[in-house]
Amino acid sequence: MLPLDPSALRASLVNASRKEASDMTPPPDLGSLDWEQLDLLGWRDPKLPRRAYVVLPGHPDDDDRPRGVLLRQAEAVPRRRAQCAWCQDVTLPNDVVFYAARRAGAAGRVGATVGTLLCRDFECSRNVRVLPPLAYEGFDREAARQQRVAVLRERSRAFLLAVLGDEHAG
Ligand SMILES: [Zn+2]
């Protein structure tokens, strides 16, 4: 994805109040990220417990504007060996937790949320780029890796659309 600065990150949030957006602390490593290796930028707020954000790159259907979602980690602890809904990594290199997002617009104002299991620190972009093992002779590992990247992009976008709901047009 293309690099974003803190004000662009704040402006991207589709389900945050003005105050929530201004309270956001950008990722500490924002200046040294390898953006080309990211399908999304997710991070936990360094100052606010349980608060996290995920920003997706622009999409042609949204005028190529980046869109971000404010998330809250649920109190519930997922069962062991939970799988991230986005990268579906089976080797579990990191913790997976339950995140909930308030829906954008009117639905969110009456308390509607969308929830999903995700890598705790949004390691998904890294996970899907790990070259998969040789499943069988002639297995195209590079194609399999690219397929995982594509699935990650599809699933994270589907989550964003679920958060936007009817507000998508706006
Ligand atoms: Zn993941």
Automatic annotation (TrEMBL):
InterPro entries: EF-G-binding_C. Keywords: Metal-binding, Zinc, Zinc-finger. Residues 9-162 form the Elongation factor G-binding protein C-terminal treble-clef zinc-finger domain. The keyword Zinc-finger applies. One of its GO terms (molecular function) is zinc ion binding. It holds the Pfam family FBP_C. This is Treble-clef zinc-finger protein. It comes from Quadrisphaera granulorum.
